[in-house]
Amino acid sequence: MPEGEGVPDRLWIFDSVTISNFSLVGRLDILQARYAHHLALTTQVVDEISRGVTSGRHDLEPILALVDNGIFRLLALTNEERTTFGKLSNNLGQGEASTIAAALHRDATVVTDDRAARQATRDLALSLTGTIGILIACVRDSTVPAANADLVLESMVDAGFYSPVTRISDVL
Q: Which of 14, 78, 109, 142 is spaced 20 to 30 Å from 36 by Cα?
C-alpha cells in the first residue's frame, strides 16, 4: 500500500521518532482525529519515551498520558512477535524492531521515519507511513487544512525533524 494511504480503522503502530514529531509541536490531536481508537505503541517504544521524559524531554509526557488514558493501545509482544523482534533487533533499535514485529503479526501499519526501519518494513511488504504521509493523508481526508499541515511541518522542522519536503501543499 502506498505511503499515507490506507484504511484508518486498521491498527497503526508508531515508533518513538514519528510519535515524537507530533508531540514536540503539541499536535498529537491530529493523530487522535484521524486514527481515533486505532493508535498503538509497543512497550519497547513506551520505554524509550519514558527514558526520554526521565532525561528531561518533558515535551514527550503527553504521549505517556495518552497511553495512560487508553488513547494509544499498549502492545506487549507475543511469543511469535518476540521471535521476529529478536531477528529484527540485529539491525534496528528496539522501538523500531518491536513496531515492525507487532505490525507483521497483527496486519497493522508501521508508522516510522527511520530509514533502516522503513527499508525493513518494505522488505516484509508491510503497510507503511510516516510523518509526511500522515500529514498528506490528513489533508486529503480533510482532517487538517493544507495551510495548517504546512504550519505543523514547519514547526516540526524547527524542532529538529528532517523533512524531505518543505511544504505539504506542494506534494498534494
A: 78
CA distance 41 to 32: 14
Please give the single-letter amino acid code of residue 128.
L
Q: List, for residues 19-44, the tens digit of each pLDDT value.
A: 999 999 999 999 999 998 899 999 99
Chain centroid to CA 65? 16
| Four-point Cα dihedral 141, 142, 144, 146, nearest 10 | 100
Report how far Cα 1 is from the mean position of its chain's Cα atoms: 16
Segment 110-128, tens digit of pLDDT? 999 999 999 999 999 999 9
Q: Where are the domains positioned within the chain? A: 12-170
CA distance 116 to 96: 9
The position carrying cell 515524537 is 20
Q: What are phi and psi of 149, to 5 degrees?
A: -60, -40
Mapped onto helix, strand or coil, the DSSP state of residue 51 is helix
